[in-house]
Inverse folding.
């Protein structure tokens, strides 16, 4: 009798704990409703006040185009009960926007950067030019309620405008180098010279000694910057495109360009702004050349090449692949987990590492394209939600191929791994968590980068890392001598899936609170309460029946007791 009473009580208590388990992941809607004061000013107006441009012109003129690019991503982001996103997700979507549109890695928005209460992860350019906005809007009561799509549009457009404005000082430097003043109009030839000088400054950075040498000796310039003639042709194409558009569809204030073929400082500024936005798409051919060289060394198709092969290629005459082991580790391009194959270089992490970003400025890097963005976009478009069943993720991937026209090998360990991610989150896979990004890496090992835990890697240009960013001749020779030809690669290809996924980590990192979209594995939810109560009722009813039977039946009826106990 005491045992059944205890069982019924524990069952009810367990049900209460299961339902109250929601509180661990889910917020009380009343807390959300009353949290924080009402916002005193809309986000767009706050951004406009920082820019000093009001709601017309400037950044605001970019709103429609930005909205068109952001809307698909926005539709699948996890939101709160008001349909708003947290600051970290606003930061995430801003990073993805710039990478998708121009392959710009905005400083401060790097995915691996740790974001916490003391460091909110705002872009460096916002922190420099809009510190009051960071203090009063992003880090204040505004953020506690969340951000809308309009807020995201305003933030991205404002950063675009700030980036564009910041380039004027570098353009002024190019004018000065060419002995021009900002108030004079330039001929086509003069503008081309200024833009050429701008490109050198833009790509070389603050190394004044190198700048002086390159700008004074064109032969040295062409040898020092890969494909320099092609780069100048690209810049010339930007100028001609601007000329053509203004002749074909002249706008107010563009008459002098059409009539005299001369250009103001503002028009030169417009040209360099177009270069920033489009240069990565031009340079992607070079990125694919680098990738092709790496893939040729990836005999096991794991998206990794041994460090010995990496340095061996450099020793054989490949001018790339000369980053030191310490620098590769800092970039997150080094896998040191395999006991069988030794240290290896992760192809997509290396490609998108800062050492392969062709331009480094105080505000951004111009990098190789993140090929995984297209894959994630396909999944998001198909799923249409921030979380998904594993089977719904596999459907759009079935029709995808990598850049070698190979279909992903999703059967076996990868399918099981995807299900395990879902099991961790109550049956659904968060599309923007670390575990799913890790799964995408192993499904598309040459396209999707391995997602390191926040704060463990950084985006540092070679000169920012220090003097030891280049491998020493001794280390290079030592590694190159350790090459074993194709035998080791063939052996690795024969290893089971667990071996080549040795870098897999079970540590999840969700960017924001997914409580409205996920159920904890131990949380059966409100629906389970009714089931629990029914079961508890049955347990008590069984107990009541047993008590009644014990009063009217003889000891020989004990079989009825065991039967009902087993049922419960």
């Amino acid at each position: 009798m005491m045992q059944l009473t205890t069982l019924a009580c524990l069952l009810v208590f367990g049900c209460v704990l299961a339902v109250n388990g929601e509180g661990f992941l889910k917020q009380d809607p009343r807390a959300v409703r009353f949290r924080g004061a009402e916002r005193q000013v809309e986000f767009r107006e706050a951004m406009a006040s920082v820019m000093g441009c009001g709601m017309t012109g400037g950044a605001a003129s970019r709103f429609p185009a930005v909205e068109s690019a952001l809307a698909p991503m926005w539709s699948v982001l996890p939101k709160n009960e008001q349909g708003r996103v947290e600051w970290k997700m606003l930061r995430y979507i801003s990073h993805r926007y710039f990478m998708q549109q121009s392959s710009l890695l905005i400083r401060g928005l790097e995915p691996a950067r740790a974001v916490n209460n003391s460091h909110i992860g705002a872009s460096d350019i916002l922190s420099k030019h809009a510190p009051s906005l960071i203090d009063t809007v992003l880090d204040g009561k505004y953020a506690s309620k969340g951000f809308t799509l309009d807020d995201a549009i305003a933030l991205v457009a404002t950063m675009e405008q700030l980036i564009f404005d910041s380039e004027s000082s570098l353009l002024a430097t190019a004018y000065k180098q060419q002995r021009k003043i900002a108030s004079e109009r330039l001929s086509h030839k003069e503008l081309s010279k200024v833009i050429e000088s701008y490109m050198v400054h833009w790509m070389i950075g603050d190394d004044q000694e190198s700048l002086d040498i390159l700008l004074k000796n064109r032969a040295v310039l062409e040898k020092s910057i890969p494909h320099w003639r092609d780069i100048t042709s690209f810049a010339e194409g930007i100028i001609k495109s601007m000329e053509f558009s203004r002749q074909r569809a002249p706008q107010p204030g563009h008459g002098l360009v059409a009539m005299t073929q001369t250009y103001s400082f503002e028009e030169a500024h417009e040209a360099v702004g177009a270069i920033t936005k489009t240069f990565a798409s031009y340079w992607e051919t070079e990125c694919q050349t680098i990738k092709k060289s790496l893939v040729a060394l990836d005999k096991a198709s794991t998206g990794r090449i041994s460090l010995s092969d990496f340095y061996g290629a450099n020793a054989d005459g490949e001018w790339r692949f000369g980053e030191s082991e310490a620098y590769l580790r800092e970039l997150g391009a080094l896998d040191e987990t395999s006991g069988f194959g030794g240290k290896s270089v992760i192809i997509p992490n290396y490609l998108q590492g800062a050492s392969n970003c062709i331009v480094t400025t105080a505000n951004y890097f111009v990098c190789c394209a993140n090929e995984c963005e297209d894959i994630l976009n396909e999944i998001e478009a198909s799923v249409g939600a921030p979380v998904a069943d594993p089977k719904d993720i596999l459907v759009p991937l079935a029709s995808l191929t990598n850049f070698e026209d190979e279909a992903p090998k999703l059967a076996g360990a990868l399918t099981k791994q995807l299900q395990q991610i879902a099991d961790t989150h109550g049956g659904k896979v968060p599309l923007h968590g670390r575990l799913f990004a890790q799964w995408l890496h192993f499904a598309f090992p040459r396209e999707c980068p391995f997602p390191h835990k926040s704060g463990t890697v950084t985006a540092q240009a070679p000169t920012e890392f220090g003097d030891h960013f280049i491998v020493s001749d001794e280390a290079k020779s030592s590694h190159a001598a350790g090459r074993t030809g194709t035998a080791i690669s063939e052996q690795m290809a024969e290893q089971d899936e667990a071996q080549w996924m040795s870098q897999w980590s079970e540590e999840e990192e969700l960017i924001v609170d997914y409580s409205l979209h996920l159920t904890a594995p131990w949380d059966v939810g409100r629906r389970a309460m009714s089931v629990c109560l029914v079961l508890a009722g049955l347990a008590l009813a069984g107990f009541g029946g047993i008590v009644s039977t014990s009063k009217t039946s003889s000891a020989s009826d004990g079989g009825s007791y065991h039967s009902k106990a087993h049922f419960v």
